[in-house]
Design a protein that fits this description.
mainly alpha, 299 residues
């Protein structure tokens, strides 16, 4: 990485502060170095010879330029965050009140919509054969995943005392150590009861145990799910969160109740859940294109 000339001493002093005082990881430090060095090189090319001479309109030109060059909005957000942190430290060291990145926002990136399995694909996936050594466990695991929209960590940490099969409810602890109760569908209840009858667990036993009776590891679930998807003839990239996405999309498509889906997923902010309204609109758009006489596209 090229030397930043007259801008290098303050940059190195800031990186030293992050190393010693903040104790950031090597990867994070490398990201800070890369982002700030890139800005420093651009500043020198613009004739800006000191950090104290950088103004917001100049920084805005830099942001616009690298965005046109292909840097994503998310990467620009990270870069501006690095600049803000640098100037907070620079101001303490130089008793200045300068922060050209303050209030400056990166352009928004197009948000990628999560992939989902349609209802037929989900049915094919969850109806794995139960006659193998792990058949009952796998069926119960997949049915519960899709039935209740659980996170991977919630499924792995689940114990039998948190399952009420009679009333069809499961209590899980999600992000922020927050608990919520989620319905368990009839197919999942049947599969879980069959697995319980075979495994004969205690109330504090993990529903899906791994080695030595400990809860199954997330990695084991990921690998097993990938193998089961291929076994069932699904050659998409099937992963645990895909089942959660599919659950949310299918429930919203059928009910239109965004608040209800938010509660089921355990999202603190409804904005997180709103991405599924875009998925629902995609479905409606396909229906419209296929059905409306004036919408059919020419082959």
């Amino acid at each position: 990485m090229a030397d930043a000339g007259p801008l290098q001493p303050e940059l190195e002093e800031f990186l030293g502060y992050l190393t010693v005082e903040r104790r950031l990881s090597a990867n994070t430090l490398q990201a800070y170095r890369h982002d700030l060095s890139d800005l420093a090189a651009w500043m020198l090319g613009q004739g800006v010879q000191s950090w104290g001479a950088l103004r917001q309109e100049t920084l805005r030109s830099y942001v616009a330029g690298v965005h046109r060059g292909g840097l994503s909005g998310k990467s620009l957000q990270r870069r501006l965050s690095a600049v803000r942190s640098f100037y907070r430290h620079f101001n303490r060291s130089n008793t200045a009140e300068l922060n050209p990145a303050m209030g400056l926002r990166a352009p928004k990136s197009a948000r990628k919509l999560p992939q989902v399995l349609d209802a037929d694909e989900m049915t094919r996936l969850v109806e794995v054969p139960t006659d193998g050594p792990l058949g009952l466990r796998d069926r119960a695991m997949l049915e519960l995943f899709y039935s209740s929209g659980l996170r991977l960590s919630e499924l792995c940490g689940l114990r039998w005392r948190s399952l009420d099969l009679a009333d069809g409810l499961v209590t899980v602890t999600g992000k922020g150590n927050k608990s919520r109760r989620v319905p368990v569908g009839s197919h999942a209840r049947t599969a879980l009861q069959a697995w319980r009858d075979e495994s004969k667990p205690g109330l504090d036993t993990p529903v899906f145990p791994g080695r030595a009776g400990a809860p199954i590891s997330p990695r084991t679930v990921q690998v097993r799910l990938r193998a089961l998807a291929q076994q069932q003839g699904l050659f998409k990239r099937v992963h645990p969160h895909l089942l959660r996405h599919s659950f949310a999309s299918h429930v919203l498509e059928s009910s239109g109740d965004l608040r209800g889906v938010q509660e089921l997923l355990g999202h603190a902010d409804i904005a997180t859940t709103q991405i599924y309204t875009h998925l629902d609109f995609q479905h409606l758009a396909k229906v419209y294109d296929a059905a409306h006489p004036r919408a059919r596209r020419k082959p």
